[in-house]
Write a structure and sequence with these properties.
elongated; Endonuclease I-creI; four-stranded antiparallel β-sheet; alpha+beta
Length: about 240
Protein backbone atom coordinates (compact mmCIF):
# COMPACT_ATOMS: atom_id res chain seq x y z
CA UNK A 1 0.00 0.00 0.00
CA UNK A 2 1.50 3.34 -1.05
CA UNK A 3 2.11 5.86 1.73
CA UNK A 4 -0.23 8.43 0.21
CA UNK A 5 -3.12 5.97 -0.03
CA UNK A 6 -2.38 4.57 3.44
CA UNK A 7 -2.23 8.00 5.08
CA UNK A 8 -5.41 9.11 3.30
CA UNK A 9 -7.08 5.96 4.65
CA UNK A 10 -5.78 6.72 8.17
CA UNK A 11 -7.10 10.28 7.87
CA UNK A 12 -10.61 8.98 7.11
CA UNK A 13 -10.31 6.57 10.02
CA UNK A 14 -9.11 9.36 12.31
CA UNK A 15 -11.94 11.68 11.18
CA UNK A 16 -14.42 9.04 12.25
CA UNK A 17 -12.88 7.05 15.10
CA UNK A 18 -9.65 8.71 16.23
CA UNK A 19 -9.11 10.85 19.30
CA UNK A 20 -6.38 13.33 20.12
CA UNK A 21 -5.95 15.04 23.48
CA UNK A 22 -3.57 17.20 25.49
CA UNK A 23 -3.05 15.36 28.78
CA UNK A 24 -1.93 17.14 31.94
CA UNK A 25 -0.61 15.16 34.91
CA UNK A 26 1.54 15.63 38.00
CA UNK A 27 4.84 13.97 37.11
CA UNK A 28 6.11 11.80 39.96
CA UNK A 29 4.22 13.92 42.46
CA UNK A 30 6.67 16.75 41.76
CA UNK A 31 5.47 19.06 38.99
CA UNK A 32 2.72 19.61 36.45
CA UNK A 33 3.59 18.10 33.09
CA UNK A 34 1.88 17.47 29.79
CA UNK A 35 1.78 15.09 26.83
CA UNK A 36 -0.12 15.07 23.52
CA UNK A 37 -1.90 11.74 22.95
CA UNK A 38 -3.42 10.21 19.83
CA UNK A 39 -5.42 7.00 19.97
CA UNK A 40 -7.77 4.54 18.30
CA UNK A 41 -9.95 1.99 20.09
CA UNK A 42 -11.91 -0.72 18.25
CA UNK A 43 -13.83 -3.88 18.98
CA UNK A 44 -11.35 -6.74 19.12
CA UNK A 45 -11.47 -8.45 15.74
CA UNK A 46 -8.82 -9.95 13.50
CA UNK A 47 -8.97 -7.08 11.00
CA UNK A 48 -8.82 -4.31 13.64
CA UNK A 49 -5.87 -5.97 15.36
CA UNK A 50 -4.05 -6.20 12.02
CA UNK A 51 -4.80 -2.54 11.28
CA UNK A 52 -3.52 -1.29 14.62
CA UNK A 53 -0.43 -3.49 14.35
CA UNK A 54 0.37 -1.69 11.11
CA UNK A 55 -0.11 1.67 12.84
CA UNK A 56 2.13 0.51 15.68
CA UNK A 57 4.81 -0.59 13.24
CA UNK A 58 4.93 2.81 11.52
CA UNK A 59 4.44 5.19 14.45
CA UNK A 60 5.40 3.22 17.54
CA UNK A 61 3.30 3.85 20.62
CA UNK A 62 1.46 1.18 22.60
CA UNK A 63 -0.84 -1.58 21.40
CA UNK A 64 -3.00 -3.40 23.94
CA UNK A 65 -6.10 -5.55 24.23
CA UNK A 66 -8.41 -5.39 27.23
CA UNK A 67 -12.00 -5.77 28.39
CA UNK A 68 -14.12 -2.62 28.45
CA UNK A 69 -17.42 -2.23 30.26
CA UNK A 70 -19.99 -0.64 27.97
CA UNK A 71 -23.67 -0.24 28.93
CA UNK A 72 -23.37 -2.80 31.66
CA UNK A 73 -21.64 -5.38 29.49
CA UNK A 74 -18.01 -6.30 29.04
CA UNK A 75 -16.57 -6.42 25.55
CA UNK A 76 -13.12 -7.14 24.15
CA UNK A 77 -11.41 -4.14 22.61
CA UNK A 78 -8.03 -3.38 21.08
CA UNK A 79 -6.38 0.01 21.43
CA UNK A 80 -3.42 1.82 19.94
CA UNK A 81 -2.22 5.01 21.54
CA UNK A 82 0.89 7.16 21.35
CA UNK A 83 2.10 9.85 23.76
CA UNK A 84 5.59 10.47 22.37
CA UNK A 85 5.83 14.05 21.09
CA UNK A 86 7.82 13.29 17.93
CA UNK A 87 5.70 10.26 17.01
CA UNK A 88 2.42 12.07 17.63
CA UNK A 89 3.65 14.89 15.41
CA UNK A 90 4.66 12.40 12.70
CA UNK A 91 1.21 10.80 12.76
CA UNK A 92 -0.72 14.09 12.73
CA UNK A 93 1.38 15.56 9.92
CA UNK A 94 0.99 12.40 7.83
CA UNK A 95 -2.84 12.54 7.93
CA UNK A 96 -3.31 16.32 8.02
CA UNK A 97 -3.53 16.93 4.24
CA UNK A 98 -6.41 14.44 3.96
CA UNK A 99 -8.51 15.37 6.99
CA UNK A 100 -12.04 16.67 6.44
CA UNK A 101 -13.63 16.71 9.90
CA UNK A 102 -10.77 16.96 12.38
CA UNK A 103 -8.45 19.37 10.62
CA UNK A 104 -8.86 21.90 13.42
CA UNK A 105 -8.07 19.19 15.98
CA UNK A 106 -4.83 18.51 14.13
CA UNK A 107 -3.93 22.21 13.93
CA UNK A 108 -4.40 22.66 17.68
CA UNK A 109 -2.26 19.62 18.50
CA UNK A 110 0.51 20.79 16.16
CA UNK A 111 0.37 24.23 17.82
CA UNK A 112 0.75 22.57 21.23
CA UNK A 113 3.65 20.45 19.96
CA UNK A 114 5.51 23.57 18.78
CA UNK A 115 5.19 24.99 22.32
CA UNK A 116 6.45 21.72 23.79
CA UNK A 117 9.37 21.18 21.41
CA UNK A 118 11.94 23.54 23.00
CA UNK A 119 11.89 21.48 26.21
CA UNK A 120 11.66 18.08 24.49
CA UNK A 121 14.17 15.72 26.09
CA UNK A 122 14.55 17.89 29.19
CA UNK A 123 13.50 16.68 32.63
CA UNK A 124 12.64 20.24 33.67
CA UNK A 125 8.97 21.29 33.53
CA UNK A 126 7.69 24.01 31.23
CA UNK A 127 7.14 27.54 32.48
CA UNK A 128 3.76 28.54 34.00
CA UNK A 129 3.12 30.80 30.98
CA UNK A 130 3.58 27.95 28.53
CA UNK A 131 1.45 25.59 30.63
CA UNK A 132 -1.41 28.11 30.68
CA UNK A 133 -1.20 28.54 26.90
CA UNK A 134 -1.29 24.77 26.50
CA UNK A 135 -4.29 24.57 28.84
CA UNK A 136 -6.15 27.02 26.57
CA UNK A 137 -5.39 24.80 23.58
CA UNK A 138 -6.57 21.76 25.54
CA UNK A 139 -9.85 23.50 26.38
CA UNK A 140 -10.46 24.44 22.75
CA UNK A 141 -9.64 20.91 21.64
CA UNK A 142 -12.11 19.51 24.17
CA UNK A 143 -14.88 21.77 22.87
CA UNK A 144 -14.45 20.25 19.41
CA UNK A 145 -15.62 16.87 20.71
CA UNK A 146 -14.44 13.33 21.52
CA UNK A 147 -13.53 14.31 25.07
CA UNK A 148 -13.76 11.19 27.21
CA UNK A 149 -15.64 11.80 30.44
CA UNK A 150 -15.10 14.79 32.71
CA UNK A 151 -11.73 16.41 32.15
CA UNK A 152 -9.62 16.87 35.27
CA UNK A 153 -7.30 19.57 33.96
CA UNK A 154 -9.11 22.55 32.46
CA UNK A 155 -7.55 25.99 31.99
CA UNK A 156 -9.09 27.15 35.27
CA UNK A 157 -7.75 24.08 37.12
CA UNK A 158 -4.23 24.65 35.75
CA UNK A 159 -4.46 28.35 36.66
CA UNK A 160 -5.53 27.54 40.24
CA UNK A 161 -2.71 24.97 40.53
CA UNK A 162 -0.11 27.57 39.52
CA UNK A 163 -1.62 30.22 41.80
CA UNK A 164 -1.63 27.80 44.74
CA UNK A 165 1.96 26.62 44.31
CA UNK A 166 3.39 29.79 42.79
CA UNK A 167 4.84 27.65 40.00
CA UNK A 168 4.27 24.39 38.11
CA UNK A 169 6.24 22.65 40.87
CA UNK A 170 4.08 21.03 43.56
CA UNK A 171 6.31 22.16 46.41
CA UNK A 172 7.36 25.38 44.73
CA UNK A 173 11.03 24.39 44.80
CA UNK A 174 12.83 24.33 41.48
CA UNK A 175 15.86 22.13 41.07
CA UNK A 176 16.68 23.37 37.58
CA UNK A 177 17.81 26.71 36.10
CA UNK A 178 14.86 29.06 35.73
CA UNK A 179 14.62 31.74 33.06
CA UNK A 180 15.34 34.40 35.67
CA UNK A 181 18.52 32.66 36.82
CA UNK A 182 19.78 32.11 33.28
CA UNK A 183 19.22 35.79 32.48
CA UNK A 184 20.95 36.82 35.71
CA UNK A 185 23.96 34.61 34.93
CA UNK A 186 24.35 36.10 31.47
CA UNK A 187 23.98 39.67 32.74
CA UNK A 188 26.64 39.15 35.42
CA UNK A 189 28.94 37.52 32.89
CA UNK A 190 28.62 40.61 30.67
CA UNK A 191 29.79 42.63 33.66
CA UNK A 192 32.97 40.56 33.70
CA UNK A 193 32.33 38.51 36.83
CA UNK A 194 34.01 35.11 37.16
CA UNK A 195 32.09 31.84 37.20
CA UNK A 196 32.72 31.52 40.94
CA UNK A 197 31.38 34.98 41.78
CA UNK A 198 28.33 34.49 39.55
CA UNK A 199 27.60 31.13 41.17
CA UNK A 200 27.76 32.73 44.62
CA UNK A 201 25.42 35.60 43.71
CA UNK A 202 22.85 33.50 41.83
CA UNK A 203 22.92 30.56 44.24
CA UNK A 204 23.85 27.84 41.77
CA UNK A 205 26.93 25.71 41.17
CA UNK A 206 29.97 26.97 39.27
CA UNK A 207 29.49 24.17 36.72
CA UNK A 208 25.90 25.34 36.07
CA UNK A 209 27.15 28.85 35.39
CA UNK A 210 29.77 27.49 33.00
CA UNK A 211 27.16 25.44 31.11
CA UNK A 212 24.83 28.43 30.68
CA UNK A 213 27.60 30.71 29.42
CA UNK A 214 29.11 28.12 27.09
CA UNK A 215 25.72 27.10 25.64
CA UNK A 216 24.81 30.76 25.09
CA UNK A 217 28.13 31.34 23.32
CA UNK A 218 27.89 28.13 21.30
CA UNK A 219 30.99 26.67 22.97
CA UNK A 220 29.46 23.85 25.00
CA UNK A 221 30.91 20.43 24.10
CA UNK A 222 29.66 18.28 27.00
CA UNK A 223 27.61 15.09 26.71
CA UNK A 224 24.61 16.70 28.46
CA UNK A 225 22.23 18.06 25.78
CA UNK A 226 21.31 21.02 28.04
CA UNK A 227 17.77 21.05 26.63
CA UNK A 228 16.42 23.12 29.50
CA UNK A 229 19.08 25.82 29.08
CA UNK A 230 18.54 25.87 25.31
CA UNK A 231 14.78 26.15 25.79
CA UNK A 232 15.20 29.07 28.19
CA UNK A 233 17.61 30.80 25.79
CA UNK A 234 14.98 30.33 23.10
CA UNK A 235 12.34 31.98 25.29
CA UNK A 236 14.78 34.88 25.82
CA UNK A 237 15.39 35.10 22.05
CA UNK A 238 19.09 34.41 22.55
CA UNK A 239 20.67 32.60 19.60
CA UNK A 240 23.22 30.02 20.70
Amino acid sequence: MKNETWHAYLAGLFDGEGAVTINFFVNGGKYLSIKPVVEFTFAHREETVALLKQLHKEFGGTLKAYKKRDRGKERDVVQWFCADLEKVEAFVRSVYPYLRIKKRHAELVLKAIELLKPHYGSSAPRSPEIMLELAKISDELSKLGRSKGKRKWTYEKVKRFIEKHGDVYVKGSRNWLSKEKVLQILELRKQGLSYSKIASRVGVSKSSVARVVKVAEGRYKGKDKCQNIKAVLGELNIVY
